[in-house]
Predict the structure.
Amino acid sequence: MAERANSAVAERYDVLAKWQSPSFDATTRAVLARRLDAPPARRFFTPEQFAVLEAACARLLATSPGQPPIANAIDADLFEGRREGFRRPDMPPADVAWRIALAGLDAEAQRRHASGFATLEGALQDALLHAWQQGDLDAESFPGIPVQRFFGDVLLKTVAAQFYSRPEAWSEIGFGGPASPRGYVRIGLDRRDPWEAPFDSTRRRTP
């Protein structure tokens, strides 16, 4: 959860270099263009809730706050009513659960450190997120939601899904993007198509 160093892999492989190639069609380019556009403005969360979410995203992904704008994407989905289509019976609706969870994290930061989560130094933010992951936060700060389950099933899952839907993340891990329209031909073990990222044994996340 520390700051990410620039990835040497991302410098060597850029999935967007395939923009005009047969690997991407007009539909793919349109989707990627929307993801690369300026992020939507905050509309769902309060400024305080948004600051907590943006700080949490940065620590979970080891990025600078707002780079990329994952909190904006989550805010937009909630504002526009986009959901997974299901929820656990012990979890309130997403719009309610997210607000409770972010308020709870901020309350725990205030209780432990007399400061809001967004203004804590990174190590303290990490410690609170680790405690949340383990279910070691005060359940009274999260009324109506299962504390540990929200972290794993909602927060972490959503943040990771939003991040890995973006082309800069694809470049980092060497993913070539959608299989349509070109597709993948050499699908056996240790086989790669010429338009895929080259194998790099040094590819790793820098803690």
Remarks:
- The longest helix spans residues 94-113.
- Helices lie at 8-12, 26-36, 47-61, 70-79, 94-113, 122-134, 147-163, 167-173.
